[in-house]
Amino acid sequence: LEIGSPMAAMYLLGHDDYYTSHKFVPFYWRSYVRHVENEINKEAYQRNDYPELGLQIEGEGDEDEQVEISQENQRYYLKNNVYDYVLRPTKFENVNLYNWIQGSTKKRRGKKEQ
Fold first, then answer.
1. pLDDT, tens only, 49-58
2. What is the top-level taxon of the source organism (predicted)?
């Protein structure tokens, strides 16, 4: 394996092998779209005038919601980026999804805040 001296120096000094002018945040659009589709399907099902027919709306129940469960100090935490946005504090209710993802950060609460 041949490696150039600038690349070897970067690895030895612990520098990144790429540079960007911005910090990018991973964003999984599909989970947000699925949440909106599920909410629309729930409303459509509730408006069903003929519940005795037992009609199933297309796409309903196809995919389950994904939630990450973490444990720290004998406590369990549920992590879900969609619900972080949906259940955001009321002072942020005018923040759109793009700005929420771009500007929000996650940090652990201290013992006094719990």
1. 555 555 555 5
2. Eukaryota
